[in-house]
Amino acid sequence: MYDIEIVLENRPGSLALMGEILGTNNISLEGGGVFAGNEKSTAHFLIMEPEKARKVLGDAGFDVLAINEVIIQKLRQDLPGQLGLFCRRLADENVNILVQYSDHANQLILVVDNPEKARAVSDKWMKEFWN
């Protein structure tokens, strides 16, 4: 899975058009969100086929800013404070979170500045909280 970062016009129908283009090309979005600015918005979506999405969106005039690696982390919903604790562990390793959202399976999706370090934190987390 990858995060695709897309610029959208901040106007009615922009997100609909993006979704229609991806749907027509059998590209599924597995999570994400749109963050509004003044005239432009930034969309981040979790996707399986990033290069195919980049091409079809680019062909339709959308500006795809980046394809990003993601960290996908399951947090324990029965233990309060999981988000803070996991993010603190990333911070303690000097990993900066650039984007955060959830997927359709209620997992934490992160784009970070150091995926290798973040994966090590995530792997240790999984052993501690899920084994």
Automatic annotation (TrEMBL):
Against Pfam families, the record matches this protein to: ACT_8
Name the domain of life. Bacteria
Q: Where are the membrane-spanning stretches?
A: none
Every ACT domain range: 3-121
- Quote the protein name from its UniProt record: Amino acid-binding ACT domain-containing protein
Which lineage?
Answer: Bacteria, Pseudomonadati, Bacteroidota, Sphingobacteriia, Sphingobacteriales
